[in-house]
Amino acid sequence: MIWPRHLAWAGRCQAGMVVLALWAQLFDMGESVWPLLGGVLAWVAAGVLFRQLRGLQRLQVLLMLLVGVVLMAWALWRSPDVWATAWPQVLLANQALLMMLMSVSFLRLVAQIDQHDQQPTGPSALYRTLLGVHLLGAVINFSSMMIMGERMARDGKLTLWQALTLTRGFSLAAQWSPFFVAMGVALTNAPGASLWGLLLAGMPLAAMGLWLTAWQLKRLPDIAQMSGFPMQWKTLSMPGGLAAAVLLLHWLWPSGPILALISGLALLMVIFTLSYRAWTSRRWVMLLIPLKRHVEQGLPGMSGEMLLFMAAGVLAAGISAVVQVTGFSLGIEHFGANQACLLLLLLLAMALLGVHPVTGIATLSGLVASVNPDPQLLGMTFLMSWSLGVNISAFSGTHLAMQGRFGVNALTLVRHNSGFLMVMTCLNLLALQLYGLLQGLN
C-alpha cells in the first residue's frame, strides 16, 4: 500500500519531469542538465509507484528491467566505453514519450461530454458512438472510452457489441492520432518519419476499420434496441481545435520537436480553459484545485504506462549496448515492404502472447535500425502493430478494462474480433506493400 502523501509527491515529481523535459525540448537544451534532472525525478516517481503494479504488468516491467540491466552489464564488461552512451539513455528512458503521455492526460480536465438523461437507441446511436469514441479518444485517449462506457452501461454492464464498438473505435485512432502515445513511439523509434506522412497513411486505414465495424453493427438482429452514447457534436470542438492547432503549428515550424509541440499545446489549452472558467465564475480556486488534484492523483494513476515506457527504455538501452559492442545484425541488408510485413506479423504475434506493443517495438526497433530502414515505412509498421495489437490480445489494457469495469469477458472480445482483425491485418499488409511499390522499396 502507498500512502496518499507519497502518491502526491510522486505526482509532483512526474509534473516536474514534464516541465523540465518540455523546457529543454522547446528551447533546444537537450545537452543541458535539465532533461537529466527530469530523468532523476521520473525515476524517483517510478520507485514510489512500482508498488502499484499488479499481475502481468508488474511481470513485464521486471523482465524488461532485468534483461536490460543484464545486457548492459555484459556490454560494459566487454567494452567500458559503452557507459558514455548507455547511462544517459537509461536516465532519460523515453522521457519525451512520458512528457507527451502525461501532458495529454490533463485534457480530461476540460473535456466536456454532454450527459443527457435519455440514451439514444438504434443504428444511428451506435454509429455516432463509434465515431465519437474514435474522434474524442484520438485526443483524450483512454478516458473517453471509460466515460462513455460508464454512461452506456446498464447495472454496470455493457453488451458485447457495445464493448466492441468502444474498443474498436478507440484503438483505430492509434493508426493516425498525433495525441496517441503510439504516434510518439513511432516517431521516436523511427527517426526521420514524417507526422504528415503517417497521418495520410493511417487515416484511410482507420476509416476502413470504422466502416467495417459499422457494417457489422448494421447486420445485428437486435440493433434497434441497442443503446448508444448521447454524443453531441459540440463535444468534439475541443479535440478538433487542438488537433488543428497542432497541425498548423507543425506546418509553420516543420523542424520543431513534434512531441513537445503536442505536449505544450495540450497544457496551454487546459490552463487557458480552466483560467477562463475561473474568471467567468470569479472563483480562481476552479483553476488551482483541478490542476492540483490531477497532479497528485491523476498522474500517479498512470503508474502502469509510466513504468512500462521506462522499463522499455532500459531494455532498448541494453539492446543498443550489445549491438554497439558486437556489431550484431539480423542478417538482412534491406528493409522493404516484405520485411515490414514480416515485422508487423511478428509484433502482432508478440501482442497475442500478452507482450505490450511498446515492449515489442523497443525490442525489435534497435535490431532493425542497423539496416537503415525507410523511416516512414517503419513508423507505419509500428502504428499498425499498436492499433491491431490492442485488439488481438486478451491482456491489453482496453480488453482488461472492459472485463474489470463492465463485465465483458476479454477472451470473448478477442474471439469476436477475429474476423475483423483478419480483414484489417490484410488491409494493413496491403498498405505496406503499396507504399513499398510507390517508393521502390519492394
What does this structure look like?
Keywords: Membrane, Transmembrane, Transmembrane helix. The structure is a single chain. The chain is mostly helical and 442 residues long. The protein folds into two domains: 1-114 and 234-328, no CATH class; 128-231 and 332-442, no CATH class. It has 19 helices and no strands. The chain has helices at residues 4-26, 33-49, 55-78, 83-92, 95-105, 123-140, 142-152, 160-171, 181-189, 195-218, 237-252, 258-281, 285-298, 303-326, 337-352, 357-368, 375-392, 397-406, 410-439. Helix 10 packs across helix 19 (410-439).
Low-confidence stretches: none
State Rg.
22 Å
Query: Number of folding domains?
Result: 2
Query: Main beta sheet: strand number and arrangement?
Result: none
Please tally the helical runs, counting DSSP H or I stretches of 4 or more residues: 19
State the shape: globular
SSE order: HHHHHHHHHHHHHHHHHHH
Helix content: over 70%
Q: Find the count of extended strands (DSSP E, 2+ residues).
A: 0
The share of residues in extended strands comes to under 5%
Which structural class is indicated by helix and strand composition?
A: mainly alpha
Mean pLDDT: 84
End-to-end span in angstroms? Answer: 54 Å
How is this structure best summarized?
This protein is mostly helical and 442 residues long. Helix content is 73%, strand content 0%. The chain folds into 2 domains: 1-114 and 234-328, no CATH class; 128-231 and 332-442, no CATH class.
Compile the SSE list and pairings:
Elements: H1 4-26, H2 33-49, H3 55-78, H4 83-92, H5 95-105, H6 123-140, H7 142-152, H8 160-171, H9 181-189, H10 195-218, H11 237-252, H12 258-281, H13 285-298, H14 303-326, H15 337-352, H16 357-368, H17 375-392, H18 397-406, H19 410-439
